[in-house]
Design a protein that fits this description.
Catalyzes the conversion of oxaloacetate (OAA) to phosphoenolpyruvate (PEP), the rate-limiting step in the metabolic pathway that produces glucose from lactate and other precursors derived from the citric acid cycle. The chain has 612 residues and is α/β, with parallel strands linked by helices. Helices cover 26% and strands 22% of the residues. The chain is globular and about 70 Å long. Bound molecules: guanosine-5'-diphosphate (GDP), 2-phosphoglycolic acid and manganese (II) ion (2 copies).
Length: 612
């Protein structure tokens, strides 16, 4: 062990509380040395990672990594929120007592970084100077260099963020220990992994993975779980799995901001990177603020609901990203961006990369190509249909590389929120868009978001499940308390955002094709929503919200079969009536669900019965 004090001195890390934290875990994990990281260390760390074989070059200024084959997605089952108060137990947060989990994690971490470097990564999950910055500071300790390189892309990283704290103890203590990935029994009864947020102690202890969603503690554990808990405990803010976009109308000069929650791998990043459809591009521009997390609060001066993206980069799904679906995403991972790909197909001899949906057919010349596990494609049998890239393969790139990044993405103020939308992969029932103008009905709608699980989490792809506000994997405290807090925060705003539920994924019952082309065309229903809020269109009222008439939806320059359009703009009443029974059961699981939410449920149910 090098002298920890000396390493911290040399790095100018002066915060005494951080120093004590580093010393405690350096001792516990048995790391051979400590190294403090600033964003400016990126180029050197990239070189070191290439030399060590942790990354490979994929052309000029692009990198490739492969994760352990049993470590490719977030594990929801192994993720736990622990506190000292059992009333924090919810249905989804896998609550356990802090007194049980901390010693258990410490036991697993003891000596587990032997021989390795423990990197000290001080970070800020907010634009500097933002009103929520006091809750956004943290230090991640990690024994994996690739995790450091991802953190530098996904968060603002540097010692200044902890040296400048008013209260030196007010940072999140985040510890990541990789463990011996080949002997952790992933997915078996003997699974050794634990991903624990000790929320009331602002301490995050993750053991047994180096995959982004489990190992980038600033992003998910702090940005979502810890942020949610802190936002509730302080009564000040919401931390949500939301994308956040700006829509600029060049004709009127107006700017709008929409945020919204879709479960992982259900379209947030694509929506945030959206290039307007060609026919609408002269008038509208979509700008990227965030694609996975938004923190929301009421701005003291204006009284309006504001939002900001705590992250500094994009951790995006590769599958189906191509020139048509998402040209901005491709530009953000072009050569020279220093992006990092994980678990896609790779040709080390040419530096080329490929994933399903990148082009219609995989590269014709299979020579030199390796699938995501590292196995040569050329050795495959002809009838082998296994994907070349893992379905949850990803790219990591900083916001600066995103072509449609908002000019003011880094401004401390954040942006006023005009609309909050919820959505997910739902193959039937959910129309293209239904707008909701009442706060309690909007929150009720978010709480009853039902969608298909995706490959972003281990296990259950395709299974329909409720995913409240798309936060099911990140829920930090009881769902009833969460609903009340949501009502309180948004309800305090002087101007109420409009809510909507969207669905880009409705399918034809017979051949399974998507009824809506999606991607860039998703701007069209969002423009309708803003027009509705402005009183420029009226829509058609239904029991479950206001839906656009065919005439109101701007379909200029787009081809959609009339039958498909009709389907996605109609309400399947029998299915909805059946759904109301499921919702009753779903909501009934939660303690302290506010009466306002039950009233909203009963209003929708009786409106459906009246219509039928
Ligand atoms: P996120 O994980 O919520 O950020 O979702 P992404 O934007 O990364 O998208 C996840 C997957 O859904 C990718 O494979 C996308 O290509 C696909 N996807 C995104 N938007 C649409 C859409 O509007 N229609 C269809 N059919 N697929 C989409
Ligand atoms: P996603 O982000 O929502 O873009 O998939 C990563 C995650 O939630 O694991
Ligand atoms: Mn996410
Ligand atoms: Mn995403």
């Amino acid at each position: 062990m090098n002298d920890v004090e000396a390493a911290l001195d040399a790095a100018g890390l002066t915060n005494p509380e951080v120093r004590a934290f580093v010393k405690e875990y350096a001792e516990l994990t048995g790391a051979a040395r400590v190294e403090v990281v600033n964003a400016s260390d990126d180029a050197r760390l990239l070189e070191e990672a290439v030399e060590a074989g942790e990354l490979e070059r994929a052309g000029e200024g692009r990198y490739y990594s492969r994760s352990y084959h049993k470590d490719t997605a977030r594990s929801e089952e192994r993720t736990i929120v622990a506190t000292n108060n059992e009333s924090d137990r919810g249905v989804y947060n896998n609550w356990r007592p802090a007194s049980e989990m901390k010693p258990m994690l410490h036991d697993r971490m003891r000596g587990a970084s032997e021989g390795k470097t423990m990197y000290v990564v001080p970070y800020l999950m907010a634009p500097a100077g933002n009103t929520l910055a006091p809750w956004a500071t943290g230090v991640e300790l990690t024994d994996a260099r690739t995790v450091v390189l991802h953190m530098i892309r996904m968060a603002r990283v540097g010692v200044q963020f902890v040296n400048e704290l008013d209260d030196p103890a007010s940072f999140v203590r985040a510890v990541h220990v990789t463990g011996d990935l080949e002997h952790l029994g992933q997915g078996t009864d003997a699974d050794q992994r634990y991903f624990v947020t000790v929320a009331d102690e602002r301490t995050i202890l993750h053991f047994g993975s180096s995959y982004g969603g489990n190992a980038l503690l600033g992003k998910i554990a702090h940005g979502l779980r810890q942020g949610a808990y802190d936002g509730w405990a302080s009564k000040k803010f919401l931390a949500e799995q939301y994308m956040l976009i700006g829509i600029h109308d060049k004709e009127t000069g107006k700017d709008y901001h929409i945020c919204g929650g879709f479960p992982s791998a259900s379209g947030k990043t694509n929506l945030a990177m959206m290039a307007a459809p060609d026919a609408l591009g002269d008038r509208y521009h979509v700008s990227f603020y965030g694609d996975d997390i938004a923190w929301l609060w009421v701005d003291e001066e204006s009284g309006r609901l504001y939002g900001m993206n705590p992250e500094y980069g994009v951790f995006g799904v590769a599958k189906d990203t191509n020139e048509n679906t998402n040209p901005n995403a491709l530009a953000s991972v072009a050569e020279g961006t220093d992006c990092i790909f994980t678990n896609i197909a790779f040709n080390p001899s040419t530096g080329e990369v490929w994933w399903e949906g990148r082009t219609k057919e995989p590269p014709a010349d299979r020579h030199g190509w390796l699938d995501w596990t590292g196995a040569p494609i050329a050795d495959r049998k002809d009838n082998d249909t296994a994907p070349w890239a893992h379905p949850n393969s990803r790219f990591t790139t900083t916001l600066d590389n995103v072509p449609n990044i908002a000019d003011d993405y880094d401004a401390p103020a954040g942006v006023p929120i005009d609309a909050i939308i919820f959505g997910g992969r739902t193959r039937d029932r959910e129309p293209l868009i239904r707008a909701i103008t009442d706060l309690a009905e909007g929150v009720y709608d978010g709480l009853t978001l039902g969608a298909e699980a995706t490959s972003a989490a281990e296990g259950k792809e395709g299974v329909l499940r409720y995913d409240p506000m798309s936060n099911r994997p990140f829920m930090a405290y009881g769902e009833g308390d969460y609903a009340q807090h949501y009502l309180d925060v948004v309800g305090a705003a002087s101007e109420q955002p409009i809510f909507a539920h969207v669905n880009w994924f409705q399918r034809d019952a017979e051949d399974g094709h998507f009824l809506w082309p999606g991607y860039r065309d998703n701007l069209r229903p969002l423009l309708w929503l803003l027009q509705l809020k402005n009183g420029e269109v009226k829509g058609r009222s239904t029991a479950v919200g206001i839906i656009p008439t065919e005439e109101e939806l701007n379909l200029e320059g787009m081809d959609i079969p009339a039958a498909d359009l009709e389907r996605i703009l109609s309400i399947d009443k029998p299915r909805w009536q059946q759904e109301m029974g499921f919702r009753e059961e779903h909501l009934g699981q939660f303690e302290r669900m506010p009466e306002a939410i039950w009233e909203a449920h009963r209003r929708v149910a009786s409106a459906l019965d009246d219509e039928a």
